[in-house]
Amino acid sequence: MKIGVISDTHIPDRCGHIPAKILEAFKQVDMVIHAGDMVTLEAIDELMSVCPKVVAVAGNMDGSEVVKKYPLKQVFNISGFKIGLAHGAGAPVKLIELLKSTFEEDNCDIIVFGHSHKPMNEKIGKILFFNPGSATDCLLGEPSYGIIEINGKIEARIIKI
User: Fold this and answer.
1) For labelling alongside 144, which of 8, 76, 118, 161 has CA 20 to 30 A away?
2) Mind listing the pLDDT tens digit for each residue in 70-120?
3) How far apart are CA 5 and CA 16, in angstroms?
């Protein structure tokens, strides 16, 4: 299973559309995960135009239509691995501790998150913490997205655009 991972698109506040390079890459995935701060549902519509299976959570900057449609946290299984998904909140320096607490009872193999706009692909203890960075923000670094491949093991990578 190949999963495209995106976060912090802030459409249309920071960018009019998801970058074409990401949409092209996501034509080759089995599903897409959006880790919040899409702002409006336009980002989801764009993702679904290239991959019909999109899983998402609401973030702290999302409008009411997004918050009504998507939860703040999801936990799901893919090929025997448990994936936790949340946007994150508060100060970025405390983000990992918040996520550990949020998923404390869930026994996740990987926690996918956003919020900080900083890519992260790091195993802490038994859990892989994966943040694809922001797909559209050039202020805090290069825009990026992620790919997670699950085939008996989890392999994840950040792709700068």
Assistant:
1) 76
2) 999 999 999 999 999 999 998 888 999 999 999 999 999 999 999 999 999
3) 19
Distance CA 91, CA 80 (A): 32
Please check whether residue 40 is in contact with residue 12, taking contact to mean a CB–CB distance below 8 angstroms: yes
Strand order in the sheet with 54-56: 54-56, 31-34, 2-6, 144-150, 154-160
Instruction: Pull the structure tokens for residue 76.
Output: 């799901």
Q: Where exactly are the structural domains of the chain?
A: 2-160
| Tokens describing residue 121 | 């692909």
- The owner of tokens 């805090």 is 140
Tokens of 18: 């998801």
| Alpha carbons 129 and 97: distance in angstroms, whole number | 11
Phi-psi bin for 117: left (phi > 0), alpha (psi -120 to 50), beta?
left
**Cα–chain center distance at 5:** 5
55: tokens are 């899983």
Backbone angles phi, psi at 19, to 5 degrees: -55, 135
- Architecture of the domain defined by 2-160: 4-Layer Sandwich (3.60)
